[in-house]
Structures are given as C-alpha cells and as structure tokens.
Specification:
Helix 1 crosses helix 7. The protein contains nine helices and six strands; from the N terminus they run βααβαβαβαβαβααα. Strand 4 (about 85-90), helix 5 and strand 5 (about 115) form a beta-alpha-beta unit. It has helices spanning about 20-30, 30-35, 50-55, 70-80, 100-110, 120-130, 140-155, 165-170, 175-185, and strands at about 5-10, 40-45, 65, 85-90, 115, 135. The chain is of the alpha/beta class.
C-alpha cells in the first residue's frame, strides 16, 4: 500500500549517508507520485548527533519515521511490509570483509535490497549473486537516485523481484550450518 523503505539496526557516524537522503529528495522532486507513496522507517539505535540531523537537516525529514528498537519477532513481521530493505554498511576500512547478519534475513524475505557500501565487497557480491538488489557506493548520488527510481517503478508496476532462489538458498541457515559442520569435522 506504500513505497516503504525500511532500515533495521544501528545508525551512527559510520553508517550515516547524507548522499542517500539527498538522492531520495531529488528522486522525489522528479517524481511527484513518489511523494504520495513514500514512507521511510528507521528502526533501532541512532547516535544523538545523527538523530538531530534527521530531525533538523534531513532533506526528506517529513517522510522519515524514527523508531526505537523492537523485538526480533517484530522485526521479522516488519520485513514483510517493506517495499525495499535498506542496508547501510560501515563506512570504514575494517568493514571490507564484514558481512552483516541482517543481510541473510533480508535475503530470506525476498524483498529488494538497497545497500550502501563497498560495491566490490563481499556483501555486494552476495546481493548481486542472489539478484536480490543493488549495492551503491556511499556517495554516488547519481546511482543511488537511479536505483531508488527503478525500485519505485518496480513497486508501481507490482513487478516481482526475480531473485536467484538457488543462490539465495546457499545462504540459508540450514546450508550455512551444514558448511560449518563440514569444516568442523575436517578439523578433528
């Protein structure tokens, strides 16, 4: 019923993405229909400075709802209401090989993912392999805006995201636990 963008988790100085919010504002300015349909929900812990930015400087502040953290059970329910799941990865050198656990839950929802971070990193590779969405560089407003616009057009046309189910299944808890078990058995 709404073009609902949702993010779950911590937003701090390493996950703060002003370029994303500027690109969203530009996409909305070019597409008034998006203004009628858009809702942005951010669930989780947010640094005070970032919270202040959202309340006072965010170019789309009137479309953004900030929520306190909720239970994991509630998070799983909320995933199903999203048109697009946002994944803001850490903007730091030590984040290169980090794959957020949230990514695997996002994959299971079969909802489109819009990730911001290292476009050549492991997380971006998994998203691309599973055809589960797009990873944009942190400050690439042009690509971010194009991605948001494409995802909105897909939402309007009720286009189903055709993820690679075999690739996605390889990242299920059952498959990953099986691989871990095999590795542990090789140690003994």
């Amino acid at each position: 019923d709404k073009f609902r963008l949702m993010h779950f988790g911590l937003i701090n100085e390493f996950r703060h993405a002003p370029a994303f919010w500027e690109a969203l504002a530009e996409a909305m300015a070019e597409n008034p229909e998006m203004q009628e349909a858009l809702e942005v929900h951010l669930y989780g812990v947010m640094d005070d400075q970032i919270h202040h930015w959202f309340k006072n400087e965010c170019p789309v502040a009137s479309f953004v709802e900030l929520h306190e953290p909720v239970s994991h059970e509630k998070v799983l329910q909320l995933y199903t209401t999203a048109a697009v799941l946002l994944l803001f990865m850490n903007k730091s050198e030590n984040a290169k090989g980090h794959i957020p656990g949230k990514l695997f839950e996002y994959l299971a929802t079969e909802r489109p993912i819009l990730a911001l971070g290292d476009i050549n990193g492991d997380t971006a590779g998994i998203i691309a392999q599973c055809q589960a969405g797009v990873t944009c560089a942190w400050d690439d407003k042009v690509v971010i805006k194009e991605t948001i616009t494409r995802q909105f057009e897909a939402y309007l046309s009720k286009e189903t995201v055709l993820q690679d189910s075999a690739a996605r299944a390889a990242y299920s808890r059952v498959q990953l636990t099986g691989k871990l078990s095999e590795l542990l058995n090789q140690i003994t």
